Amino acid sequence: MSDFSLRRVQIIYTLSLITAGIALLVAIIAYFLNVPDLIYFHFFTISIFLIAALIAKKGKLRAPRFIYFFTLNIAIVVTASYVGKYGGVEFMLMYALALPYMIFSFKSETHYMFSFSLLSILLWVMLYITDFNLITNSKLDILIAKDVVYPISIVTTLSLVTFQLFYFSYLNSIHSTTVHIKKDEAIDASNAKSQFLSTMSHEIRTPLNAVIGLSHILADNTPREDQKENINALNYSGKILLNLLNNVLDFSKMQSKEIELDNIPTDLSLAVKQIKKIHEVNCIKKGISMHLEIDEDIPIVNLDIVRFNQVLNNLVSNAIKFTNKGSVHLIIKKKKESNGFVEIYTEVADTGIGIPEDKQKTIWDAFTQASNSTNRLYGGTGLGLPIVKSIIKAMKSDVFIESEVGKGSKFYFTISLKTTSEKEIETISEKKEYKFKGKKILIVEDNLINSMVAKQILTKAGLKVSEVQDGLAAVKAVKKSNFDLVIMDIQMPIMDGYTATSEIRKFNKDIPVIALSASVFMEVKDRIEACGMDGFIFKPFNPDDLLFEIDKALETNRNQN
């Protein structure tokens, strides 16, 4: 058996054990919810998953994969049927749908890959067609399904998907050293990763958009003092999960050298102060101090502030993580300015544990840390520094390290940035005051929670909002009523956003249509432009970004007419 097949055997063995553990958890929950049929069923599935693991342990590949996929899909459907549509158990079919791209070969097992993905889709469709009565008409109480089962379903789905992302990326990295010998296997891994990351990026960002959006809404609705801490924690956790997802996706882009910068006029002093505000709480908890030193005479510069903040967040987070006493310093200085460009020196220094000299080169490798005990004691994915180096290289510079064990570390780099005028950034700031009164917006979004979040944000901004759940309904709504703008999700049932926009353009050339999607913009850019859309909003979106894009589209439409 080839090493690549052995790798797949190890994956199916690990997945079988993990899924058996999840089935045990579901059986326990079913016991407390007094659903005896589910208890017996999941104890049966536990035995099936363990049998699959045992067969895989013996080096067999085909049988355990078939057993695992059939059992997994049936287990999800049976549980969803007992819980009902308010429990969200069917979302786990997203995990089952993407899994074949990890387990089967693109070269020789394409038919198995698509067959098992199609199985998950068909079962999902059958659940909705039968109103979740596919297996049984008996259902949990709706309140229990909403308040107890739904949060567990979402957390479990996100955990499984995150496990898929990291486990698959890890397996790809450890085999990359022999890619020249195992060409066919490396091509399989690369294709599977691309398909997998594309699918999971969309599916994770959609519920994450609701989490971050709702936390913004709660924070704006004058919460009680005792609620503010919980709301801030919810918002922070959502952003941490988003950053984790971005790190994994950026690692994929980094390998194929696809990181692109979006430079905008930026006031560095304002942007960097937010970094200190975010991380200072962790410093206080650890009993260390954080110092920010930034030159006051740094001009307004053209910079991809999202990427720059990603670099600073990774470096500062590492510094705080590995410092138990002393301080962390973030220093930003202007070195020289001439001919419309300025050189900015950035340094993050700490008094932490330090890095041995023989490890100072390997820490830039993906999934690598200074020692085995580092991960055990401090945690982390080992992706932060490789991404830092990749971003700085995209900025046409390099990042360096000076470190001594027991005394601390210093990471530093210098980037050359184009300067811009104060007037330009003031123009952008002025757009925060929007005049939307009387404007009618149509939201086309099949996810009801995301639609609710967007509606609350837009209504609070003074917009009149209507909602539909698919592209065909959007076409009918635009024909029937006069809207000033349409926010169009891309992936929807019945008719997708691309087709709906093309249909609208047949009878209405003027109405602005803004795409709303969890897909990466560069991956959908051509189709967005081809169907006649006027802009793009990335999920999960920041409310200010959403309002800015709407205002820009409305203003452009006014100028053209």
Describe the protein.
By secondary structure, the chain is of the alpha/beta class. The strands form three sheets. A five-stranded mixed sheet has the order 2-4-5-7-6. It has a five-stranded parallel sheet with strand order 9-8-10-11-12, with helices on both faces. The chain has a two-stranded antiparallel sheet with strand order 1-3. The chain starts with a helix and ends with a helix. The protein has 19 helices and twelve strands. Residues about 370-380 have low confidence and may be disordered. This is histidine kinase. Its EC number is 2.7.13.3. InterPro entries: CheY-like_superfamily, HATPase_C_sf, HATPase_dom, His_kinase_dom, HisK_dim/P_dom, HisK_dim/P_sf, Sig_transdc_His_kin-like_C, Sig_transdc_resp-reg_receiver.
Whole-number radius of gyration?
Answer: 26 Å
Largest sheet: 5 strands, mixed
Mean pLDDT: 81
Tally the helices. Answer: 19
- Spatially, the strands of the biggest sheet line up as 2-4-5-7-6
User: What structural class do you assign from the helix and strand content?
Assistant: alpha/beta
The span between the termini is 67 Å
Gross morphology: globular
Number of strands: 12
The helicity comes to 55-70%
- Beta-strand proportion: 5-15%
Task: List the uncertain runs.
Answer: 370-381
Q: What's the assembly state of these chains?
A: single chain
Catalytic activity: ATP + protein L-histidine = ADP + protein N-phospho-L-histidine
Modified residues (4-aspartylphosphate): 489
Domain Response regulatory: 440-554
Domain Histidine kinase: 199-419
